[in-house]
Specification:
Layout lengths: L2 E6 L5 H19 L7 E6 L6 E2 L2 E2 H10 L2
Parallel strand pairs: 1-2
Antiparallel strand pairs: 3-4
Length: 69
């Protein structure tokens, strides 16, 4: 059975998660030709303070953008 894992920033609402799961499941079922019931989606939400890019925390990059620095 296929597992789809998505890593990203936290979503603001449960409805966003529902839509994400629905659309990913729909696409995978179409491509694989499998029944939607056997496709699993795991959402891993990563806080900006726990992710780095270019040697800096994403939280720091966001804070810098917000302050206009």
């Amino acid at each position: 059975m296929p597992f789809i894992v998505i890593d990203g920033p936290p979503m603001k609402t449960v409805d966003q998660k529902r839509r994400m799961v629905e659309k990913l499941t729909e696409a995978a079922a179409e491509v694989y030709g499998y029944d939607r019931k056997i496709i699993h989606v795991i959402i891993r939400e990563n806080e900006p303070a726990n992710v780095g890019a270019g040697g800096r925390l994403i939280a720091d990059i966001h804070a810098e953008r917000e302050s206009g620095s």
